[in-house]
């Protein structure tokens, strides 16, 4: 369970930095300040949750927990739904309705699963 989460964390980190640079250098002249802020919010949440996913991958080396796996899956879903919908909104004006809040809910549920996994864990090697 650890390797896929670490791999996804690295890919989301890489693309988050690239998208942040793209926003700073390539979109500043093309987007309104409001849309640029929306895009940057997507980047921020992507990068934060890439780090959270890295943490899930690291913890998975020591804990066997379905809740930990659920946290990782929810963080991935949150990045795709929340950040992805903000990128689509700003770059194409495509409004996806409830997709962004659903992504935010995935983030919150991911943190809840992580907290519950930590509460129930019997860590080895810590």
From TrEMBL:
Parts of the chain that traverse the membrane: 44-61, 68-90, 96-119
Record's bilayer topology term: Multi-pass membrane protein
KW Membrane (keyword) present: yes
UniProt keyword list: Membrane, Transmembrane, Transmembrane helix
InterPro entries: DUF423 (IPR006696)
GO cellular component, one term: plasma membrane
Superkingdom of the source species: Bacteria
Localization, UniProt: Membrane
Protein family according to the UniProt entry: Belongs to the UPF0382 family.
PANTHER family with a match to the protein in the record: TRANSMEMBRANE PROTEIN 256
Name of the protein this chain belongs to: Uncharacterized membrane protein YgdD, TMEM256/DUF423 family
Organism of provenance: Geopseudomonas guangdongensis
Organism lineage string: Bacteria, Pseudomonadati, Pseudomonadota, Gammaproteobacteria, Pseudomonadales
């Amino acid at each position: 369970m650890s390797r896929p989460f670490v791999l996804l964390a690295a890919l989301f980190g890489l693309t988050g930095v690239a998208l942040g640079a793209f926003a700073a250098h390539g979109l500043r002249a093309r987007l309104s300040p409001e849309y640029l802020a929306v895009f940057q919010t997507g980047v921020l949440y992507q990068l934060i949750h890439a780090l959270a996913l890295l943490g899930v991958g690291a913890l998975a080396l020591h804990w066997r927990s379905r809740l930990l796996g659920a946290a990782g899956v929810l963080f991935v879903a949150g990045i795709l739904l929340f950040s992805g919908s903000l990128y689509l909104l700003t770059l194409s004006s495509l409004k996806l309705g409830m997709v962004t809040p659903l992504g935010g809910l995935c983030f919150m549920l991911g943190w809840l699963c992580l907290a519950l996994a930590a509460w129930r864990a019997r860590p080895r090697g810590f």
